[in-house]
Design brief:
single chain; mainly alpha; globular
Length: about 280
């Protein structure tokens, strides 16, 4: 198997078969990626691939390349969305609603239809989320929508997002936090709890001004955003472990698209939470 050209992963140890030991010393497969590929014994492909034409096994380079492509498409879409909403502010709510809903539907299709390795779905998600993020970022920074004014907030959120990503990659590589089945259950349970609270806050908002106070910029909202950021950060460990297990299992090369999708979903969530938290302090 070829060596990685990415300097971040160049010094990783190899396995006896010549493959990469990948991101670190993963213990368990994360979420839906493991269900699609990682539950097979190492060195064996899932049944759909046993009769398929011979294909190259996935490497770290595949993960890096496909994640970079996905993020590049998302960034381009976000820039276009921001420019269009800046020229016509009435487009902002439309892009946020349509982009967010389409992105959610595509993730659900990819997950429940076992099509997470489909590049068309992954890149379509990137386009939809780019429209969502570009418009949402504009609304957070435009005074007309109650924003703080100026675009510096966006740059700070982007730097914060990739800073957390880099930090969690170091944590995973050094083994400071092990991804065990118990750890996975805790993080998944926390994400479900956050989803329930967000939905509860949304429903309460129809009857009470500010809902449960989770998004009104007050002290409780700040604490809730910090918790969301922490859970999103720990979710990266599950994504890294998923890539680790897939590479060790010698999953097909196109499985890297599923890893790219998982990383992008987490990055989008983290960016939105950091952007929201920064806006609270700016409003103060």
């Amino acid at each position: 198997m070829r060596t990685t050209s990415n300097p971040v992963f160049r010094n990783l140890p190899r396995q006896e078969g010549g493959g990469y030991a990948s991101f670190g010393s993963g213990v368990t497969t994360a979420g839906q990626f493991g269900n699609q590929y990682g539950q097979q014994p190492y060195g064996q492909y899932p049944q759909p691939y046993q009769q398929a034409p011979a294909t190259r096994a996935m490497t770290i380079d595949d993960v890096v390349t496909k994640t970079a492509v996905t993020l590049g498409v998302l960034a381009l879409s976000a820039i276009i969305s921001y420019g269009l909403t800046n020229a016509n502010t009435s487009l902002a709510p439309l892009f946020v609603i349509v982009g967010g809903l389409v992105g959610l539907v595509l993730v659900l299709i990819a997950t429940f239809a076992n099509k997470m390795d489909n590049p068309v779905l992954v890149l379509s998600y990137a386009v939809a989320e780019g429209l969502f993020l570009g418009a949402l970022s504009f609304m957070f920074t435009d005074i007309e929508f109650g924003g703080v004014g100026g675009s510096a907030l966006i740059g700070q959120a982007v730097l914060g997002t990739f800073g957390v990503f880099a930090g969690m990659l170091v944590v995973y590589k050094t083994g400071a936090i092990r991804v065990t089945p118990r750890f996975t259950r805790i993080i998944v349970g926390a994400m479900i709890g956050i989803l329930v609270l967000v939905l509860g806050n949304l429903i309460a908002g129809f009857f009470i001004s500010g809902g449960l106070g989770l998004r009104d910029g007050g002290p409780l909202a700040i604490v809730f955003s910090l918790v969301c950021i922490a859970i999103a950060a720990f979710s990266f460990l599950l994504d890294f472990d998923a890539a680790d297990q897939l590479i060790r299992a010698q999953a097909p090369e196109r499985a890297a698209w599923g890893v790219a999708l998982g990383l992008t979903v987490t990055l989008v969530w983290l960016y939105v939470e950091i952007l929201r938290l920064l806006s609270y302090f700016q409003n103060d």
